[in-house]
Predict the structure.
Amino acid sequence: MKYLLLPSLAAALILVAAGCDEGAKFVTESDTSIADADAASGDVPVTTTDVATDLPQAHVPDATITPGPNCGPVIPNQNTKGPKVPWGGLVYEGKTYTCNECPGGLQIQEGRWRHIDGKTEDPDVPLDDDYRERLELSGNTWSFVSDGTDSFTNTFETQTVSGWYFCGDASEISTRGSVFVVTSVANPGAFGWQEGIVITAELLMDGPLSGMIFNWRDGIAPGGSTQDLYCRIGSTVSVEGTGGAPNSQKLCKDPFE
């Protein structure tokens, strides 16, 4: 992920596909497809800027939130087992968000995931700047641990970021993405991360048991995005052979073990 548009974690969700140039070829043990990954599987180049110190800060309203009249129904059968931060709305850049389609989180994305190379889809291929990331989603909470070279400072950094997320409704968020709110940053500033930052993304699944692609956006408004590919830690993925070679089976391991 790193940090989207400031560099990538960046790591949001709801089964919405964004237009793209080619389909992802991620192959897993499961042939089940939740949504066509109609987007390039590698990171999309984005314009980066200097680290901002006055980024918009998200906060929960003081008063109890009443869902807006156009909020859609809650996604059923979300038997998430992790912690659940009570939904009380969100205020960001002067707008109050009241709809949440997954107040307990999304079951399909629960678990521990490893960010892998989007071009080869091979867990053994190092990411740019030797970046490593483990992303965990539980209930409607999320956290990730990462290290690598920070492109802003050109120094090696380690980072731990955590927070909670909600699933946006089309009446308030046109992309229907999930919104990740940052509540804790162990190393403020590293990779551009600060408390109160908001990341929105669509989840593009390609084998729900083993692989997923996150289409990340900075903030909530539609705009530039980047995509990161993840495999579920402990699963086996099939890596496409080159030059006529057969596919190889590789274990998606915790990058920090």
Remarks:
- The radius of gyration is 18 Å.
- The chain is about 0% helix and 35% strand.
- The mean pLDDT is 77.
- Residues 79 and 107 are 6 Å apart (CA to CA).
